[in-house]
Amino acid sequence: MERDKLVYMANQIAKFFESAPEGARSKGVADHINKFWEPRMRTQLFERFDAGRTSEMNPLVLEAMDAIRRPEAPQSSGAPNQGDPSLA
Amino acid sequence: MSLIQEIDYGTPVSKAEKTVTLTIDGCDVTVPEGTSLMRAAMEAGIQVPKLCATDMMDAFGSCRLCVVEVEGRNGTPASCTTPVAPGMKVSTQTERLKAIRKGVMELYISDHPLDCLTCAANGDCELQDMAGAVGLREVRYGYEGENHLGKAKDVSNPYFQFDPSKCIVCSRCVRACNEVQGTFALTVEGRGFDSIISAGTSFDNFFSSECVSCGACVQACPTATLEEKAVVEIGTPEHSVVTTCAYCGVGCSFKAEMRGEELVRMVPYKDGKANRGHSCVKGRFALGYATHKDRVLNPMIRDHHSQPWKEVSWEEALSFTAAKIKDIQAKYGRGSVGGISSSRCTNEEVFVVQKLVRAGFGNNNIDTCARVCHSPTGYGLNSTFGTSAGTQDFDSVEDTDVILVIGANPTDGHPVFASRMKKRLRGKPGQPGAKLIVIDPRRIDLVETPHVKADYHLPLKPGTNVAMLTALAHVIVTEGLVNESFVRERCEWDEFQEWAAFVAEERHSPEAVESVTGVPADLVRKAARLYATGGNGAIYYGLGVTEHSQGSTSVIAIANLAMATGNIGRKGVGVNPLRGQNNVQGSCDMGSFPHELPGYRHISVDAVRETFEDLWGVTLDKEPGLRIPNMFDAAVEGTFKGLYCQGEDILQSDPDTKHVSAGLAALELLIVHDLFLNETANYANVFLPGSTFLEKNGTFTNAERRINRVRKVMAPKNGYEDWQVTQMLAQAIGMDMNYAHPSEIMAEIAATTPSFANVSYELLDEKGSVQWPCNEAHPEGSPIMHVDEFMRGKGKFIMTEYVATDERTGPRFPLLLTTGRILSQYNVGAQTRRTGNVVWHDQDLLEIHPHDAEQRGVRDGDWVKLESRSGSTAIMAKVTDRVAPGVVYTTFHHPMTQVNVITTDFSDWATNCPEYKVTAVQISPSNGPTEWQEDYRELTMESRRIVPAEAAE
After folding, report:
1. Segment Disordered: which positions (chain A) (predicted)?
2. Which of B175, B347, B484, B616 counts the highest number of beta carbons within 10 A?
């Protein structure tokens, strides 16, 4: 069976914070994901969570979901800072 | 410009603090106690004639040329071996001395070929100089007697030759090999008149001997006996420029010795603070790639990677690229493009690449190859100490009492630092050598090398570093070896106590983890005691620590050990990551990670973003961008479509090749900016030619945070330095970027990044180099960090639970594959494979223990199939007991080996640094390359076709 790479990575983070002092565990997971996971990955994590596909998720990940920042709408099209129309 | 002539003081500097005043030729001279008369004279500007002495090594006293007279003493002592004494009155030139020297020189020259005019060392020969200095005008003995002339040259080394006819047996080469390099490959064979320098045994030549071709002997030779072949061919250089080597993270300083725009040779620079005048085979000699015929010098484009390349003008290539970028962003969104900056390029170059991505592309999809090597170092040391860098300078090793090497192979990966380490391990009269602990699955050279033997080698199973490091901590805590006063004063005490209770649990004891690590508990206990109680303890580590699914945890565990034993904040101690590439440290410092701006400041912090937003006149995205492995994932998913890849061969170097190639093939735009059509370029549709370190100005930051200048010695063959290429691309997408010189980029870095605030080209030119932090608090830089307090304030202990990797052996894949490097090759070999270095290592080999080999019917030199859950490749076997049973090992320097077809997509939990160091594999006899390798060879040939540009009308 193909493993769910995203959930696998979230669980890896949870595993590390399992040994953190009580109170710092789910916060550690949430902080880490907020700091290092780009919006696409966080969106995918929320998609699984919102759809109830959580059976493979480490309890600490589930506990952390509240504190994980929900990404805003996907990055809009049309790049800023590229003013020269002659190059379009 | 002229040739930089470094002063040779004849004997090494004395480190004594007490000084002595004496008189030499009527001048008063004050020097440190223990200085030789020769050196003291040179300090006063008086050059005593000499042949066997040079300041890179200890005095020897054999040539009898440097004799002097001392008032009140009998005879004529050698000035190199006679130490200064208070009130001494020394004469360096008297009638008696003149007669002695002339007599000595007369004897030397009576047995030396008189072919000065056609000799390669003409004008650069100390024997010639000394004949002149002593006024030798005739040789009364004639030249007919017994002599050593007409002996055959040894030209077996690709870079230098040995001409015994010109040898004066001064032993400088032998001593350089012993004292500076520490290889002990050379010896004086025979006695008296029959004495001759010999490499290895009498059956050897230089190539077949133990010689590692570091060049120390060539540099030491006062005659043309050991001479660079390049000098023989080209002639002597006429000017030189000090620059920094572009190979490993040691960052050696070299004099690039030139004739016009032709590089004659690279000579290590004695004032270089990383290398102190030493070099290795790569930096000293492996420069041929810079002028190799494979270099691509014109931009090329194609609509799809299945087509042949078309050579075009820079304008056409850049407008093609800019249009693609705009088109992709319009179709798929602002976040659909990104860049990868190179740890081989300068600080200034990686800074402009991240600026292009953040300010030009408008997202944070910028990563660097440090992702796949030292990103866990960044995370681990930042979490515990508060900054992402090693704590010491290289000089610090001279004050170390216990060296702990884990997951690093310095003699191959960081050879010049390894020589400095070996020197400390050997010790010297009055100062016994440092003790050595090696933790490595493989018996690396350092475990047992001439005059060095590890006190403890802990051959752990790959993937068990955290279990091992926590067990060491267990011993230190439970046996009461913690430096409590240091911990109380410098670290968070509550967190320490929690950590101490955690590591003290019985399940972390060496006995409990013995079945996991495979290392006898007794050995672990002894090693822990030695590290904790043996004096100044310093830990040196490499990718064997970081490239694991628990890489970051291991780095934290190392930091915990150093804090618990108080081995932080002074000379001789510390935590020292040995960085792979020349500018890994710099590329991380320069904001190449998707989550942080230059100076390791998180992108979500408003104040930090504002600094750059104000200067650049744009709004920056506050969300972290894609890391390299995420880029491949997103490309396969279809949301990431365009990548600018500067000087990195991701297809060859990143794990799980099939996943990487699927990602690359899915891109609509892949810009490869490189010297060569590398493996990644198979999937590219834009190729922008790059420049070598010889062709650009800038800075590299080495493993000790040292910012070294890179100076241009020749015009870029491709027309532009790499920062200019990036700048032209930025301009093509409409950015206002107009640097005239890299010093302007450094000025912007200093203005925006507090740890670089004082760095400028003026300061670097003045000091030679500085180590960051370099700012108001540390105006001239910081050789040692965390001296009075940690960068984060108090040091933070963090629990390190061992979690076994999910990459496990089983009945199908019973062996563990781990990977590493070899001295003569560098990284993916793009450079070193295009030099004479291939004679040492023309293919990757699989090391396998005799027991495992026999079980599988594999003999030395057989082709074997190497198979993992990810794929299979074929490689030649080398049967050796350097690896333990159950472990196999290979390097990844050659593209056809395709080792990364085997490696998996498991990665470090914190940073996604790939787990290169552990792959479960099976091995079986094979007839030759696999189908994948054959197909790959074809794909490569196919994708490298080039249609030349049509002639202009």
Report:
1. 68-88
2. B347
